[in-house]
């Protein structure tokens, strides 16, 4: 198993991305610590992982609360003997469907501010423990929106750009202390999409099926990334198979954003 004996913290473990990553990590032998705001939702995920034979624990943690994040990381490290992997899958409160000319600044800035604070606090908390053991992997998720120009996505593209930039900064400061920092870049994830969406420049909006078809049309594989593929890639990157990767992403955009 790729992650046997590893301790992994998943921030936002009750969301679809967090669930997929946690399930993949547990399947590969990691002991998974799910963190998020809603304990009942985390416990549901934990039940599924435990039912499949995985080792899992949950905790209610607001990743915008500096003290709560630090105390949780300290508690996990004390209980498990260290932290080997951390994945931030926290939602950012994005607002789509309005052009920037009509969008309140607060709606534009919310995902940027939320992501920067959450990513910084969680990375700092786990990295303090990782550098003591001389190893660890910090992970994040972005999307093709960081590289494409799409109307009516508010601050989402800027947010993903900022996450990637912050990850590179952490990577250059932590690399010589044994800690890698990587992220996964995806297309839109069809399993997470609601039934009705903004038009993203197309008048009248789009249904879920229309949005999927629209996004698929911009990929080379004529399909979108699945949650299973996301979880599998995260497990490989977090393992020793990804040991030479840092300050970089796994491009899971199905060719929507060609690597350069």
Q: Report the average pLDDT across residues.
A: 96
CATH-defined architecture: 3-Layer(aba) Sandwich
String of helices and strands: EHEHEHEHEHEEEHHE
Figure out the total of helices. 7
Q: For the record, what is the CATH homologous superfamily label?
A: NAD(P)-binding Rossmann-like Domain
Parts with pLDDT < 50 across at least 5 consecutive residues: none
Name the strands of the widest sheet in spatial order. 3-2-1-4-5-6-9
The proportion of residues in beta strands is 15-25%
Features:
260 residues, alpha/beta, Rossmann fold, two-stranded antiparallel ribbon
Protein model, in words:
- The protein is of the alpha/beta class and 260 residues long.
- It has one domain: Rossmann fold, CATH 3.40.50.720.
- Helices cover 42% and strands 18% of the residues.
- The chain is built from seven helices and nine strands.
- It has helices at 16-27, 39-51, 66-80, 105-133, 156-174, 208-216, 227-238, and strands at 7-11, 31-36, 55-60, 85-88, 136-143, 179-186, 196-197, 206-207, 248-252.
- The strands form two sheets. It has a seven-stranded parallel sheet, sandwiched between helices. Strands 7-8 form a two-stranded antiparallel sheet.
- Strand 1 (7-11), helix 1 (16-27) and strand 2 (31-36) form a beta-alpha-beta unit.
- Helix 1 packs across helix 7 and helix 4 runs parallel beside helix 5 (156-174).
- The longest helix has 29 residues, at 105-133.
- It is globular.
- The protein starts with 6 loop residues before the first strand and ends in an 8-residue tail after the last strand.
């Amino acid at each position: 198993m790729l992650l046997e004996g590893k301790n992994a913290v998943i921030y936002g473990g009750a969301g679809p991305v967090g669930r997929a990553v946690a399930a993949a990590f547990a399947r590969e032998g990691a002991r998974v610590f799910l963190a998020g705001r809603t304990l009942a939702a985390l416990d549901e995920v934990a039940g599924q992982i435990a039912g499949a034979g995985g080792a899992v624990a949950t905790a209610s943690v607001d990743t915008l609360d500096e003290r709560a994040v630090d105390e949780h990381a300290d508690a996990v490290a004390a209980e498990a003997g260290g932290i080997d992997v951390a994945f931030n899958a926290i939602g950012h409160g994005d607002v789509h469907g309005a052009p920037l000319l009509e969008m309140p600044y607060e709606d534009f800035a919310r995902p940027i501010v939320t992501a920067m604070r959450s990513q910084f606090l969680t990375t700092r908390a786990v990295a303090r423990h990782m550098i003591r053991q001389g190893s660890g992997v910090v992970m994040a998720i972005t999307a093709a929106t960081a590289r494409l120009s799409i109307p009516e996505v508010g601050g989402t593209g800027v947010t993903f750009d900022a996450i990637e930039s912050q990850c590179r900064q952490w990577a250059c400061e932590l690399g010589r202390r044994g800690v890698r920092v990587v992220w996964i870049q995806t297309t839109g994830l069809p399993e997470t999409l609601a039934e009705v969406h903004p038009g993203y420049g197309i008048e009248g909006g789009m249904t879920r099926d229309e949005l999927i078809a629209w996004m698929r049309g911009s990929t080379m594989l004529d399909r979108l990334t699945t949650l299973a593929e996301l979880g599998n890639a995260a497990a490989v990157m977090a393992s020793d198979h990804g040991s030479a990767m840092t300050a970089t992403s796994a491009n899971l955009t199905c060719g929507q954003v060609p690597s350069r």
